[in-house]
Amino acid sequence: MLFAVICTDKSGGLPLRMETRPAHLDYLKATNAVQAGPFLDADGKPCGSLVIIEADGRAAAEDWAANDPYALVGLFSDVRVEQWNRVIG
Fold first, then answer.
1. pLDDT tens across 56-77, in order?
2. Residue 40, SS3?
3. DSSP states of 46-88
4. Is the CATH number 3.40.640.10 carried by domain 2-84?
């Protein structure tokens, strides 16, 4: 199953995001991420994340989200995990 992990950064989180980015990218590459990228604010700076992952169920997807290095350092103010159906792509 595919899941969308939709994350919003805490206000002022850009320095923490940039500091943690190498570990986050390693996590994406080492796990079941299918697609990923940041949301951008009005100034074009990262302010959140969208990651599409493949997981056996919601519990596994939520576990994946909880173990993302960004989540572990407390970058996000909000995280949603939604089952997702690919229609195009």
1. 999 999 999 999 999 999 999 9
2. strand
3. EEEEEEEEE-SSHHHHHHHHHTSHHHHTT-EEEEEEEEE----
4. no
